[in-house]
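Final report, closing paragraph on structural work. Over the funding period we assembled a curated collection of sequence-structure pairs, and we close with a single example.
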Amino acid sequence: MRDPQLKFVMAFFSWIAVTVVLYIISAYFISNNYETLFSTIAIPISAFFMGIVIYVYSKEKLDGGQYPGPWWLEKYNPSNLVSFANNELSEKYSGLLSGIVENGLEVRIFANNGKFPPAFVGFGEKLGKTPTLYIEDSFIDELSESELTLLILHELAHVETGFVSKNFLMQRVFVFSFLVALALLMTFINLKILFILYPVPLFLFLISALSLILMIRLNKQSQIEADAFAIKHCDEKKAMISLLGKLEDYLMEGKYSDSVRTRSLEELKKRMEKIRNI
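Its predicted structure, as stored:
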């Protein structure tokens, strides 16, 4: 386990342990006469440990690193992909698309393991930095020059249109609101004097759920916007439809689960319909 991950896991379970202990004390050892006093002490203690969790969660991103997520998601980290830089494509498209990527573009080729799409832009990329674009090795061999250009433009659109930063923001809202709501709810349980504050964690749970829904909708909308962006900069509608057709063929190769394949195929059909109407 990476050190940042270990810190995050330790901080998270320390907070859970402290909050559970506070609940047990309040439920079995504190009389009604001392509920107000105990609440005054318990909430800052729980909030302190919750603050440590949020700090550890945020620190790596604030320092420009990757989110120190739990180890079971480590296999989805692009930095763990076996990939290599394609200097020829990087130089070619850095020059060809210089008006979009002022600081150049790095293209990396990888072998897909069924956990990543055939092409994606590195998570956390921002305008003003050099974007890293990952393309699956067998998929890129099937593309014509126009299709490859459209694919690269599509992925760069996720950075240019702000999708990557918006998606990251929604993830932060989802995680933070859920954790804080859970912290408050666990702290408030059995503290009758704080019954009036129960709507606060429930409201935060609602915010967390809404942010998740927005992430899903944002992801779907971003694909359509990215297609339009690519066609705008490379007027090749037929090539774009051909590219999506090859994506359909790629999905049928059995690298992904049935649920992922079905959902992705439905999305591709909607994207094709939108392109035909542009």
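The beta strands are 83-85, 106-110, 119-121, 132-136. The radius of gyration is 23 Å. We thank the funder for supporting this effort.
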